[in-house]
Design goal:
This protein is α/β, with parallel strands linked by helices and 357 residues long. The chain folds into two domains: 10-228, 3-Layer(aba) Sandwich (Rossmann fold); 231-356, Orthogonal Bundle (N-(1-d-carboxylethyl)-l-norvaline Dehydrogenase, domain 2). It contains 13 helices and 15 strands. The protein has helices at residues 20-28, 39-48, 102-114, 127-130, 148-151, 195-210, 234-242, 255-260, 263-279, 290-296, 305-312, 320-330, 336-356; strands at 10-14, 32-36, 50-54, 59-63, 65-67, 75-78, 89-92, 118-121, 159-164, 167-169, 178-183, 187-189, 212-213, 216-217, 222-224. The radius of gyration is 19 Å and the shape is globular.
Length: 357
């Protein structure tokens, strides 16, 4: 069942892995959605259509896909050389390093020049968004970004960010069109600067919330928040769980084990990052208490993408560890466990890069 859409919005989503989740939620709510993705993803989607399954509810979303710009009910797929005319909103749903690719950087430049509203769904909020947080010295974080130059094309007033709390995975590497939602949390979206952009976000959020399957709401909705700091609520979780999946010898454990094998040690790390985020300007109401995260972490039974990326791909790593470390340094704070993680990741990536060349 779809909500009553008077005029469908035209939405461009960069990324067809995690990005397939927000794309399908908006598409099934009645909007016109096109995904920028790699050639193998394009062909897989066109041949088989897009499919999202929700583990907790046994619900499923399906839609056909076609090359080119999409129409309501059909997911469009294309490459980065896309015409932006008529686009109402852009969603960035790739990991941060991918935005350094020349073709993606050129697209970001076009998006910036067009002044389009942008929502980043990323563990590493882009610098233009962080510049909206008055107490954060964004330039001090440059070392944490691989695509730093690309981000300079976007103006702070056009960018907001969402906390990517929903967990979704491709269970079959050969089926790039299928995504399984293992944790159906919502996208908590910080407010836009411009009133017109915020009005669009709130309308899309209502449309997505109104869509039902067999009379039941579907999880993973867009929830507009009043606070700019909503996306930073993820930082304590990322440092305590995702970053600590990686052992000093390169071994990996699940996020659940990283958090729950020593709850007191995890609590200490979590509280340190909470304090850091509060020093950037966040209120208690913006943040998630450790007990809530510890309970949810039971369901996170795989190693994090951060740990897997450091071990397997070297340079293609979203460096939230370094982002939090550098933020702490700018605020006069440091933590030995986090410093050790950053040092190991730096060294391992350097060794991987040297071996590749």
């Amino acid at each position: 069942m779809k909500g009553e859409i008077v005029t469908p919005s035209r939405i461009l989503v960069l990324g067809a892995a995690y990005g397939l989740l927000p794309a399908m939620r908006l598409l099934t709510a009645g909007h016109n959605v096109t995904v920028i993705c790699r050639p193998e993803e394009q062909s897989n989607l066109v041949d088989h259509g897009a499919q999202i399954s929700f583990k907790a509810s046994d619900q499923r979303l399906e839609a056909p896909a076609a090359m080119g710009r999409g129409t309501p009910g059909v997911l469009g797929v294309t490459d980065a050389d896309v015409e932006l005319s008529g686009t109402d909103l852009v969603i960035l749903a790739m990991s941060e390093p991918h935005f350094a690719a020349p073709e993606i950087s050129a697209l970001i430049k076009k998006i910036g020049e067009a002044g389009l509203p942008v929502i980043s769904i990323s563990n590493a909020p882009p610098p233009p968004f962080l510049r909206r947080l008055n107490k954060l010295n964004t330039d001090a974080l440059q070392e944490a970004y691989i695509a730093w130059d690309s981000w300079q094309y976007l103006k702070p007033e056009q960018v907001t960010a969402a906390s990517p709390d929903a967990q979704a995975v491709r269970k079959n590497p050969s089926r790039l069109n299928e995504l399984t939602v293992t944790l159906g949390s919502n996208f908590k979206v910080a407010p836009f600067h411009r009133e017109s952009d915020q009005a669009l976000l709130e309308r899309l959020a209502r449309d997505v919330a109104a869509y039902e399957v067999d009379g039941r709401q579907v999880s993973v909705r867009f929830v507009p928040h009043r606070s700019l700091f909503a996306p930073l609520a993820k930082w304590p979780m990322l440092v305590t769980g995702n970053c600590r999946c990686l052992g000093s010898d390169g071994s990996m454990v699940s996020i659940s084990d990283a958090v729950r094998s020593d709850l007191e040690a995890s609590r200490e790390v979590y509280e340190w990052v909470l304090e850091l985020v509060q020093k950037t300007g966040a209120d208690d109401s913006d943040l998630v208490p450790f007990r809530h995260y510890a309970a949810v972490s039971r369901r996170l039974i795989a190693p994090s993408s951060f740990a897997r990326s450091v071990v397997a791909r070297g340079g293609a790593v979203e460096r939230v560890d370094k982002m939090v470390q550098l933020t702490g340094r700018a605020l006069g704070m440091s933590h030995g466990d986090l410093d050790a993680i950053v040092t190991f990741a730096d060294n391992h990536m350097l060794e991987t890069s040297s071996t590749a060349h």
